[in-house]
């Protein structure tokens, strides 16, 4: 590959990982966490792990986000850090 | 320093995996909010899965699905170097499903803690426990 | 505290990065991970099990014991969520809101009054957070959900030949049910796929998996050695392993679907099963 696409996607993964922890609104953190999960799925698909990427797409970007949003719905949305 | 650049270029997946793992570990230790700690735990788990998947990769090889030429018949010799390593993928499928189960239980615990103490910040919870223990 | 955590994390990260020189290169075909056991799986996997997807063959046949305990762990997590959160709702807990459909009037009936019956056509129960009636979302999801379920069944059945298998199909089935619960009401979803059915399906899935292994044991071979099922199904040893993989993938899909829906019911209503997201 001449364009290092997996390096670009892994850089975006690190940025969204830091972003999910830095956002002060818990609902926003859950959504950025979903984006992190989807970018990880892309990184694994580029490295050839298609079964793992399929599972992560279904689990991480789908079910895991719904669980986080449901938990934030029943607790509070604000956080100080 | 001139031999650092080929070193980074050959092993950049390990560097990215270490950075991600340390981000997750720092979030689990240092963040005050319980939901941020849980998100840090998940970042840690996906970084480990990235490590194993990147070990399984072989340059110039294809997916671990054997391409045949029709049903039955002789497939010829299957060269193991043509396909990427399937064993870490199998282990990591288990790890992903266990991580979503752990996420469900951790969020249930967070809801219960909120019901009991009224807050999700760790220092407030510690303060309330100390006040209750002191009485 | 944060400074201490930062120092510890930087030290650990630095130590790991310092030793990456010893690890094999990225993409090296001769790394130790790829030279001891996995060439055997790649060369003999399809000949032994008649499944071109080597990951499914390794997961369900060569390493079937790990997968059985992983299914058990998922079921145990569903049980743990249930024990932590579930609360029975008293009939006189909160005031309920109903909408009178012909006139559009909203009623708020306190506890102790008479509620309309469950399936009355004139009164529709509303959540306490006001949600307007969404025609577009409801009808679009009604159109999409059957296709998601058919695709999930395809993924389970074609685990041998394409990426997929039991877990992916189970999670897709659960995602279809969760979509129904989000777009329509949580109560309608519980009415159609109740918690009792979810719990029983979860344990049935684990039972199918362990039962297939025990059946092989009863027929005289090792635990989870599917070649013993050959005379029972009437096929030769290689095809018996292929059918054994399919049977346990069905068990895994059932267990994973039931447990994810069960955890969603408990999380989204915080145990009470009356209102949802």
TrEMBL record, chain A:
Membrane topology recorded in Swiss-Prot or TrEMBL: Multi-pass membrane protein
Keywords from the UniProt entry: Cell membrane, Membrane, Transmembrane, Transmembrane helix
Pfam families documented for this protein: MbhD (PF13244)
Transmembrane segments: 6-23, 30-47, 53-73
Compartments it resides in: Cell membrane
InterPro entries with a match to the protein in the record: MrpA_C/MbhD
MrpA C-terminal/MbhD domain boundaries: 12-76
Descriptive protein name: MrpA C-terminal/MbhD domain-containing protein
Lineage: Bacteria, Pseudomonadati, Thermodesulfobacteriota, Desulfobacteria, Desulfobacterales
């Amino acid at each position: 590959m001449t364009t290092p696409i997996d390096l670009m996607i892994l850089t975006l993964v690190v940025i969204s990982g830091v972003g999910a922890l830095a956002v002060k609104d818990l609902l926003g953190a859950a959504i950025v966490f979903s984006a992190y999960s989807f970018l990880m799925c892309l990184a694994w698909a580029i490295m050839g792990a298609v079964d793992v990427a399929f599972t992560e797409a279904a689990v991480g970007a789908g079910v895991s986000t719904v669980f986080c949003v449901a938990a934030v719905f029943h607790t509070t949305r604000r956080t100080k850090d | 320093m001139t031999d650092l650049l080929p070193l980074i270029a050959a092993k950049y997946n390990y560097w990215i995996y270490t950075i991600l793992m340390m981000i997750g570990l720092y979030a689990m230790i240092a963040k005050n909010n319980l939901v941020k700690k849980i998100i840090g735990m998940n970042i840690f788990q996906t970084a480990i899965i990235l490590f194993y998947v990147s070990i399984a990769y072989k340059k110039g090889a294809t997916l671990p699905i054997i391409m045949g030429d029709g049903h039955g018949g002789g497939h010829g010799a299957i060269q193991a170097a043509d396909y990427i390593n399937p064993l870490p993928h199998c282990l990591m499928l288990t790890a992903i499903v266990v991580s979503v189960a752990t996420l469900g239980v951790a969020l249930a615990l967070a809801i219960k803690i909120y019901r009991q103490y009224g807050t999700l910040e760790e220092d407030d919870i510690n303060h309330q426990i100390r006040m209750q223990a002191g009485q | 505290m944060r400074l201490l955590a930062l120092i510890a994390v930087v030290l650990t990260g630095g130590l790991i990065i310092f030793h990456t020189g010893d690890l094999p290169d990225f993409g090296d075909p001769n790394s130790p991970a790829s030279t001891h056991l996995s060439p055997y799986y790649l060369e003999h996997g399809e000949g032994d099990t008649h499944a071109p997807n080597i990951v499914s063959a390794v997961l369900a046949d060569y390493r079937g014991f790990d997968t059985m305990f992983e299914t058990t762990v998922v079921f145990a997590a569903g049980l743990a969520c249930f024990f932590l959160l579930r609360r029975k709702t008293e009939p006189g807990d909160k005031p309920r809101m109903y909408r009178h459909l012909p006139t559009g009037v909203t009623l708020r009936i306190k506890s102790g009054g008479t509620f309309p019956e469950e399936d009355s056509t004139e009164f529709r129960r509303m959540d306490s957070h006001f949600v307007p009636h969404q025609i577009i979302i409801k009808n679009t999801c009604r159109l999409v959900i059957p296709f998601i379920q058919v695709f999930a069944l395809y993924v389970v059945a074609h685990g041998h030949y394409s990426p997929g298998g039991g877990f992916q199909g189970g999670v897709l089935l659960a995602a279809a049910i969760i979509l129904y619960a989000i777009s329509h009401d949580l109560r309608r979803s519980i009415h159609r796929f109740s918690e009792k059915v979810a719990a029983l399906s979860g344990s049935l899935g684990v039972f199918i998996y362990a039962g297939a292994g025990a059946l092989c044991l009863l027929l005289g071979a090792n635990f989870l050695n599917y070649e013993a099922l050959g005379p029972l199904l009437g096929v030769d040893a290689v095809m018996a392993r292929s059918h054994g993989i399919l049977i346990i993938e069905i068990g895994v899909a059932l267990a994973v679907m039931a447990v994810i829906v069960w955890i969603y019911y408990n999380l989204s209503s915080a145990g009470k099963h009356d209102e949802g997201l």
